[in-house]
Amino acid sequence: MISLNATGAASSASYYLDQNNRNLQKSLTRLSSGYRINSAVDDPGGLAVSMKLSAAIRRTDAVSANVGNALSFLQSQDGVLEVASDILLRMSELATLASDAAVSTSDIALYDTEFQELQDNMSSLLTEEFNGVPLFDGGTTLAVVTSENGTQTTGITKVDLDAVENTVTAIAGITSTALATSASVTLDTAIQDVAELRAGNGAEQSRLSFAQDILAVNRLNLEAANGRIMDVDIAEESTNFARLRIIQEAGLAMLAQANTSPESLIRLLE
C-alpha cells in the first residue's frame, strides 16, 4: 500500500532532524556559556562534584582572608613593639647620660623629665588594638584556622608587653648617678625582652605566611579540578557544533526530499 500522507522516510528524517536540533542547541549553549555543564541533566554526577569543589574554593578564600587578617594583627603588634624598642633605647641612652659624674644636677633633672615622659609613653602602648582586639594581653593565644576543612590551626600571641611595662615603670627615676646606673641595667633586660617578643612575633608571621602560600596553591588546584569538570573544551565543542550544523543542513535537505515523494506518486497516478 502506498500512503500519500507521510512516508516512513519522511518520519525517520523528521525524527533524526529533531534529535540533531536538540544536540545543536546544547552545543550552542555550551559555546555561549563556556560551560560543559549548564544544567543537572548534562552531567548529574559531575555537577555534584563541582558543587563540592566550588564550596571548598569559597571556604579556602574565607580562610585565606582570615589568615591575612591575622598577619595584619601581628604586623600591627610588631609595629608597636618597634616603638617600644625605640622608647627603651632612648631611656637607656638617657640613663647612661645621667650616670656621668661630670653632668650637673640641672642636667640630670632634664634627663629625668624626659625619662618619666617616656615611661608614660611605654604605658600607653598597652592599650593599642587591632580592629577592636587588644594587641597585648598577658601572652594569651588566639587560634587561627589555616586549612579549608578547619582541621589545621596555628596560634598568634597577644604578647606579654605588660611585664616589660611593669619593669620599666617601676624604675624610680634617674635623678642620681646611682639610680641612673641601676636603671641602665634594668633597661638592658627590658630591651632584650622586647627583642625576644619581636622574634616570636616574626616566627608567627612566618608560619602564617607559609599557611597562606599553601592555601593559594590549594585554591589553584581546586579551581583546576573544577574547571576540568565544568569548563567546555572550546576546540572540541566548536568542531562538534560544525558537525551538527552540517548534519542539520543535510537532514533538512533529506526531509524536503522525502516530502516530495508523495507528490511524485500522485503525478504517476494521474
Can you walk through the features of this model?
The protein is mainly α and 270 residues long. It contains seven helices and four strands; from the N terminus they run αααββββαααα. It has helices at residues 8-33, 44-98, 105-124, 161-169, 177-230, 234-259, 261-269; strands at 129-130, 133-134, 140-145, 153-158. A two-stranded antiparallel ribbon has the order 1-2. A hairpin with a 7-residue loop joins strand 3 and strand 4. Helix 2 (44-98) packs antiparallel against helix 5 (177-230) and helix 4 packs antiparallel against helix 5 (177-230). The longest helix has 55 residues, at 44-98. The relative contact order is 0.17.
List keywords for this structure.
single chain, about 270 residues, mainly alpha, f41 fragment of flagellin, N-terminal domain, 2 domains, two-stranded antiparallel sheet, 7 helices, 4 strands, rod-shaped
**Beta-strand percentage range:** 5-15%
Domain count: 2
What is the correct CATH architecture of the largest domain? Up-down Bundle
Gross geometry: rod-shaped
Mean pLDDT: 88
Total strand count, please? 4
Amount of helix: over 70%
